[in-house]
Amino acid sequence: MGTYLAKRAAGLVLVMLAMSFIVFCLQAIIPADPARALAGPSAPEETIERIRDDLGLNQPLISQYGTFLTRILNGDLGTSIRTRQPISADVLKYGPASLELIVAAMLLGTTMAFLLAFAQNTMANSGIVRVGMLAAGSVPIFLTALLLAYFLWFKLGWFPGNGRLDIRRFSGPTGFFVLDGLLLGRPDISLNALWHLALPSFTLALPMAVAIGRSLNSSLIDVMRQPYVRTARGKGLSEGHIFVRHGLRNAASAPLAMIGLQVGILFGGLLIVERIFAWPGLGLYTVQSFASSDLPAVLGVALVFGAFYIFVTMLVEIAQSLADPRIAL
Asked: How many CB atoms within 10 Å of residue 251?
């Protein structure tokens, strides 16, 4: 395990270097002047040149890249043109909301995938489940979000459709409102936060559940035909017990890999879902940065998402090794 973690850490450094180079090239290629954006459209040329000198934009590209790497290593992602704040501070401010939504969506998605696979392998009429999965997987995520917001929030009022809490200006020790409510002895805060998480997390979880559920079901079809499963049936064990005890772990490798892929796809859906449900996270922050041509903020968030995806991939590989000892780290 130690050797594996050391290799993954070295790989993480190399991938982050490659990502930083790509981000720097995008900043250099895209015809946008950060100095002009910071100074404003009516600023005189002297002010713009002074800002360019302060930002090091008049230096050679190699020197600029060295400065860029040094800033990243020090946790400095630059300054947002829109908020006029350090991007790292904005990430710490809006990151907990996105991370809470991502965790809720992943937990809900994997649970739904397990239930879908269980239904297909234990129900007599599993064709209905397959048709439902196909229908759910074919709906674009923006349409799912709009339909849920329209019917369950606007028309029926069953769920809240925007924000993280009904309480305004709540501040907790961690920024994760579900956890903060428990830490502060306020279960009403946790329940209200979960209620607000329902629609956006379900929107993100639905395509994930379909993809993981189909992958798990495909693996289970082969596993449930193995001799040890027939032996378990011969002993009189129930299908549910066989599914959990003998089938699930042996079929876990492919769906775990699918989870890693779905996390990458989830980042794209995060921008849409947070925009529709006015969720104050990094997705909404990125959309607003796009609208304001705030390129440093967009690329800074891209670096953060890239690092998070690499970390999740490492966890998936460890989970695959634990689920199937034949897969060596």
From this structure: 25
Which two three-digit tokens encode residue 188? 């009403």
Contacts of 325 (CB under 8 A, 6+ apart): none
Whether pTM exceeds 0.70 = yes
For 162-198, the pLDDT digits (tens) are 888 888 778 788 889 899 888 888 888 999 999 999 9
Tens digit of pLDDT for each residue in 6-64?
Answer: 777 777 778 778 877 887 777 667 666 667 666 666 777 777 778 777 766 677 778 77
Report residue 180 as tokens. Answer: 């903060």
Digit-coded pLDDT (tens) for 114-163: 888 877 766 656 667 677 777 777 788 888 899 998 898 888 888 988 88
CA–CA separation, 238 vs 235, rounded Å? Answer: 9
Query: Which of 262, 254, 264 minimizes the C-alpha distance to 215?
Result: 254
Q: Tokens for 44?
A: 């005189």
Rounded Cα distance, 235 and 233, in Å: 5
Q: Cβ contacts of residue 122 below 8 Å, gap of 6+? A: 239, 240, 243
- For the record, the structure tokens of 22 come out as 């790509």
Share of the chain above pLDDT 70, in %: 86
Domain range 87-323, CATH architecture: Orthogonal Bundle (1.10)
